[in-house]
Amino acid sequence: DAGITQSPRYKITETGRQVTLMCHQTWSHSYMFWYRQDLGHGLRLIYYSAAADITDKGEVPDGYVVSRSKTENFPLTLESATRSQTSVYFCASSDWSMNTEAFFGQGTRLTVV
Amino acid sequence: GQQLNQSPQSMFIQEGEDVSMNCTSSSIFNTWLWYKQDPGEGPVLLIALYKAGELTSNGRLTAQFGITRKDSFLNISASIPSDVGIYFCAGQPYTGANSKLTFGKGITLSVRP
User: Fold this and answer.
1) pLDDT 10s digits, A35-48
2) Which residues of B touch A (CB under 8 A)?
3) Which residue among B48, B103, B104 places its CB closest to the CB of A101?
4) Segments of A14-107 assigned E as strands
């Protein structure tokens, strides 16, 4: 099916472990984004990518790493997970420029224990 | 940075009632978007607005781009139980490659049958 999919939907990991959240889109959208959603903060941008091999920091990038070797994939890695990174993570994509609508995946609920 | 203000945090209405919510900013935005998030899902785009004064409808939903460019409004008419969810506004300050979407913190809508 066309769209944007995230995996896994749920993840529990231990403090200090590395964990990677996957995001795949089938629209060939040029822009992809990672947000985290926390109570009281709404959606905050972690990283974004304008095209393959082009990434840039958002509002809250510390502790995260991204890569974009292919247009359709945009994985987010927590190199050494901390409890403060417990959150719901959303991947999104949009077409040609950032002034068009962003379409979101279903989210990954990550718990760091 | 830019902030979008949505208040109150929660709204409770009776089925069949109309409800209005607004989103305000101290700075000008070039694009306004309204999203709805159902529990356990990612935000889904409801309406996109690109011109000051623009009024756009999507079924029972109507949204307006404020003429000052510093606010936007969403109206839901004849509410039904499936309108329950979190409503986010999002804005983009200008058109261009580095213009990122800013999200409000959302309003949680409850509809009493």
Assistant:
1) 999 988 889 999 99
2) 1, 30-31, 33, 35, 40-45, 48, 88, 90, 92, 95-101, 103-106
3) B48
4) 19-25, 31-38, 42-51, 54-57, 64-66, 76-78, 87-94, 103-104
